[in-house]
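Quarterly update from the structural biology core.
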Amino acid sequence: MIPGSGYEWLLPIVVSGGGGFVMGFIVGYALKKFLKLAMIILGLFLALLLLLCYMGIVMVDYEKLMSLIATLLDNLKEGAGKFVNWATVNIPFWGCFSVGALLGIKVG
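Predicted structure, tokenized:
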């Protein structure tokens, strides 16, 4: 760093943003691979469950299932609000992280 160059304030932003981009790319790439596998497993599980329901082996309590899903969605909504508040503290890092994650998902 050149003393007195006037750009000392820029280095932490560049380091934070660059690190965020690389980490975001890695997370996005891994997330896409993981979600593909998870969707295959979930699809097979649901197909098996539907087959067992059709055959009369398994009975599903849909009211209880809907109540459980509503509770889960409420918890996710509350957690997402907290995450947004936390993420806005480090805008350069999270901005570059988001771009990297989107690129990683696209490449993955």
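Residues 16-84+92-107 form one domain.
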